[in-house]
From TrEMBL:
Primary location class: membrane
Protein name: Protein HflK
Residue spans of biased composition, Gly residues class: 1-33
Pfam family, one: Band_7
Region ranges (Disordered): 1-45
Gene Ontology molecular function: peptidase activity
Similarity remark: Belongs to the band 7/mec-2 family. HflK subfamily.
Localisation per UniProt entry: Membrane
Superkingdom, natural source: Bacteria
Bilayer topology term: Single-pass membrane protein
Amino acid sequence: MPWESNGGGGGRNNGGGGPWGQAPGGGGGGPRRPGGNTPNLEDILNRGRDQFRGGVPGGRWAIIGGVLVLAAFWLLNAVYTVPEGEVGVELRFGAPKPELSQAGLHFHLWPIETVERASLAVNQITIGGTNSGDRTSDDDGLMLSGDQNIVDVRFSVFWSVSDPIAYLFNVRDPDAMIRATAESAMREVVGRRPANDVFRDDQAGIEIEVQDITQAVAESYGIGVTISQVSIEGAAPPAEVADAFNEVQRAEQDEDRLQEEARQYANTLLGDARGRAAALREDAAAYANRVVQEATGEAERFNAIYAEYVNAPEVTRKRLFLETMEEVIGQSTKVLVETGAGNQGVIPYLPLPELRPNTSTSTVPSTSTGN
């Protein structure tokens, strides 16, 4: 055949080589591979054993460097920092440890220990109105009041973590739990009260009641939070009935104004009447006191005169007569006309009305002859 004469007429057994007189790997000194050029599994294992006998490339320094890299990676995961205003809760095999890690640098055995952080700052949840960040919608604040009116309430809930372990592990989503509890409590309280209490009359009372209910529910579920305040930021009727509601409010305000004016007018009249009544009572008391005092004085004067009369009846009688006549006649105008021989021819006419312009006319004839 052609390859039998190639290479200088070599025979069929050409030194253990191939058709061209040598093994594919070079000289004919290497081991033969069954099936031609494909290496078998034993050759691969032998070559690998020979390479490992030569040692790891780089020697022991490579091993030390690998160990240092692993140690640095472990240390970075084992050391953690708790920021200011937060606390850390370490977990060992998933179970929380009772000790809390305060703000600062801390160490734990990673990976068998991990850490969860909880913020101690005051958090705010706003319910009602349009606020995509708080996952609220327009319908969250619509509530039915006790007098069958629909009100749109927007309020905020302020809370903080009091038990970090309970907050992190007792409830899957404590923020959503607080939101749902506060909204349910507000609907319950608004449903028991008239709409005017929500709008203006008793917002403070509603806030306190909602806070108490929310705190009680949070404690029953063991959320580990404290509800510090509930604040109603706005309360109004729905936009569809706002005009009609405002008209009703204006009518109620007019009613209150008229009632207040009527009360003021009634108080004015009542005050005047009470003042006049008090004045009449004072005048009556003064008149009664004056009459009593005059009567008492007259009685005392009469008793004094009577005592004198008993001692000297005639003198006392004449004195009383003279004093009485002096009092009566002393205030009248007196005209004395004497009769006698020297007054012959006197015309008996006197212009008495002209002489007494301010008193009644009286003529007193006298027959006395003395002054």
